[in-house]
Design goal:
2 copies of one chain form a homodimer. By secondary structure, chain A is of the alpha/beta class. Chain A has 9 helices and 16 strands. Helix content of chain A is about 30%, strand content about 25%. The model of chain A has no long low-confidence stretch (mean pLDDT about 90).
Chain lengths: ~280, ~280
């Protein structure tokens, strides 16, 4: 396999609409993936400080969306992540959904554990891994963990950490337009332009398939920040503070229905768009 | 004259540091321009709801910076803008400084008045026109007046209005990183990519000279959004609502000391930068 994605990923920018009849519902996309396949939809609350409330909320929403085989994995420690019962629940999953909270909780508790090995195994066999907010940030090999979006001077000093690694070559940021995070995503891309920056708005998701393309779903936008063509960057350890000067960054904004080819780093016009433009 | 700028402009992103000993002080740059030339530094408070407080503040700051020939123009109506005394004050100015407030107040009260004609006259003769926040937005031929930065769906529906027109081919937004305004500046550029989007952070300014270059000054960054190479834009009157899809926007981030060539749409590396990079 030469793609960077092995199963399917649904990466959500946070605050996805939970009303049953919402148009273009992201949770309906996730529910449908579970209904179509044998196995459970497993909600993993490890990121959250309020795992029980979070589990109850998603249980109710996914039930309403017709998901009958539903399970919750409540990991609060490395021990939980090594527990056979937990691993067995993941093994029986067709779709795993990571809730929001704190992405470092996800990686520090689950990273390299038997639960993680099992997640990787089902993912390789074609399961869908989904995550919202912190659960979205944790998907990539390198994840953003801190950094103020509203101060250009802090762009050079943002925090990165190793993520779960279900997708490589990208850095994901959530709540994107809502929290004005363009600057910090730019900073993440500046650290190493091999990573494409993906800034996902609230109630918006990307669905990544094995062909290394993703499709946008939901009411907001996805901002793609591509540093391949950068002609100058002032970033260096010596200049960790102060404003980052960076020239020739490429940006695309995609809405519901738009696609992007991660291999060739190109937005893909759908037939509908081509028609509307002509 | 083939340039788009006739005198000099100092366009400030708001909240400029007012301490006398601030490093890289923007107000010191403005004060120095006034000290170097015959004529007054005239503070114009038309944008503000609190013109008297605003005038008192800037009087104190500029006095501290050694400006002796200081005057204030307090325009509250079209009548004020047509008043001979007001016009005479402008005629005697070497530097005019527009305070923050509401940019539509500036253009609706001053636009096309004898005060405006006189501003244009001294500007053509080489005076410096400076403005902060609303005073910055009003500088260009087309100015941004409204639009939420934090909702991608409102990008297509932002408000533009005719500005004072001291500089053409650009749209200026202030408080840029601080208020997460990348989306709305992108929307402004999308309306007509002939305009380069200039997003100026707080305590940051661009100094535009007759050679059609600007230099960045201050503690934050200036974001340049260039739509020349846009390969697809979904913007149309029919699609005024919803997410704007736009592909292949170029972005540069510039810090203190960096320059940009508006004619050739290129950042200019200073010798210092070239040295540091080699």
């Amino acid at each position: 396999m030469n793609g960077r994605v092995r199963g399917s990923l649904v990466i959500v920018g946070g605050h996805e609409e939970k009303e049953k009849d919402a148009e273009r519902s992201i949770l309906e996309e996730i529910a449908a993936r579970s209904r179509r396949r044998k196995g459970n939809l497993v909600v993993v609350t490890v990121a959250s400080q309020l795992p029980e409330e979070m589990a109850a909320d998603y249980r109710a929403v996914f039930r309403d969306l017709g998901v009958r085989d539903l399970d919750v994995v409540d990991i609060r420690s490395r021990d939980d992540a090594c527990d056979d019962v937990t691993v067995e629940k993941i093994r029986n999953a067709s779709v795993v959904f990571f809730t929001g909270g704190d992405q470092l909780r996800i990686t520090s508790q689950v990273g390299d554990s038997p639960t993680f090995q099992c997640l990787n195994e089902i993912y390789r066999r074609g399961a869908t891994i989904a995550g919202t907010s912190a659960g979205a940030a944790a998907m990539s090999e390198t994840m953003l963990i801190a950094g103020a979006g509203d101060q250009s001077t802090e762009i050079s000093a943002l925090g990165m950490a190793p993520g779960l690694g279900f997708i490589s070559g990208v850095v994901v940021d959530s709540h994107f337009a809502e929290r004005g995070r363009f600057g910090r995503l730019l900073g993440a891309v500046a650290q190493n332009p091999k990573n494409i920056g993906l800034g996902i708005d609230e109630d918006t998701a990307i669905v990544v398939e094995q062909d290394d393309r993703f499709r946008v779903l939901g009411s907001g936008a996805v901002y793609v920040v591509d540093g391949t063509g950068v002609s100058y960057s002032s970033l260096s350890e010596r200049r960790a503070e102060g404003v980052l000067s960076i020239f020739d960054v490429k940006v695309h904004v995609l809405g519901d229905g738009d696609s992007y080819d991660l291999t060739h780093r190109r937005p893909v016009l759908t037939d509908e768009r081509v028609e509307a433009a002509s």
